[in-house]
What we know:
Bound molecules: manganese (II) ion
Helix content: 40-55%
Order of helices and strands: HHHHHHEHEHEHEEEHEEEHEE
Structural class: alpha/beta
CATH topology of the largest domain: Purple Acid Phosphatase, chain A, domain 2
Largest sheet: 6 strands, mixed
Distance between the termini: 107 Å
CATH architecture of the largest domain: 4-Layer Sandwich
Amino acid sequence: MQNSTTKLWRDLVSSLLSSNTPVVNIIDQVYKAYPKHFKSKDSCGETVKKFIRKIRPSKTKTSTNDFDEQIQTQREHLETQVQKKHDKVLAGKMAIADFVIENCKDALRERSPSKALSVLSKMPKRKTGSDELDPNSSTPQTIVLELSDIQAGTLISKESTGGLNEFNWDILCEYFNNLFIGVQEVTTALQKSSPITSLHVHMLGDIVEGAQIFPGQEQHICKDLFHQVIGVTDLIEDFLIKCLTLFSEIHVTAVCGNHGRVGKKGENPHWVNWDRIVYEFVKRELSKFTAITWQLDDSWWQIDDIYGYKFYITHGDDIRCWQGIPYYGIDRSAQRETELLRISDQYYDYFMIGHLHTPSVIPGVTTTKFVNGCFPGGTIFTMKNMGVASRPQQWLLVVHPKWGVSYHCPIYLQRGE
Length: 417
Ligand SMILES: [Mn+2]
């Protein structure tokens, strides 16, 4: 037996149908009038559609088609809307990908592939402590160089800083030269007492300055992004090749910084980064040098193992500062990373970051944290807004198999006459 509410809503459907009301609107009105009669709006829709089909059996095929067409039209409309939205997002992503690919091609065309090999042929004979010392009488140690925040392409003029600082491409080249001289001096001195043959380089990111990391950045660079990439690739290659005159093996571990990111923050995955392209260029062009090994992948962190001591390496741009002071942020970040690493049963002894530009060493109970220095020194932003500037420098560490980091010293990049 048909209950009274059923009769009422069916009458309503019939009357609306006769006035050519679209099915979607009929469903709306029925549900609005008799909400308690149906489990949900969906079940109301299904029931009403069934009823409409039932009372139209004798109608012409055209009527059934009308109904199906309405549903089809609605579906197509929705599909078009979704597709349009999808196309828009896809077009944006493809534009960025094309931009990166095209510029990588340009950069590759401008590279000189034989450069590294020509330098190799001019390499002087390698001299290391092991040639002069009995390895059994002295413990071998490893030298570690933190190399980061090069920010190649940064332009700081004397005029704009009232003479407080100056940085440009010529100065960058000079600093790279001084970096090698510094590493050479310390290494040669240490090699007199210990057979040091191994260098580990931690590349902590911000190798290039970028071009659109902050508003108006174009006014503060001396080379566009592509020439930053090409130029700094040459400088790093030459530096590593020169280091082969001091060490018989070099292990490079690398992570990306925030200045080389492509697009706005979060638009691309963290490994889509110009720093990564520099690393890949250097790695591929120096692939003939089997003494240089690489630890490089898509991750934002790496662990470099030296005699069982674990060096956790990351850029550090996710570290927060409170009132301009980063130390609490560093501590918090290090503790969180410690917990995260437990997921895969890993741990670290040393926490190595760049980004902050203020070189420091923060001792802890079981871990020591190193914040690397930078190449440009004080920028207009840090000096004008924060009143700080640090002397351009990079950390050099010595790792002893028994004691871990037994020595550390800054390699200053400015050298007086
Ligand atoms: Mn940074």
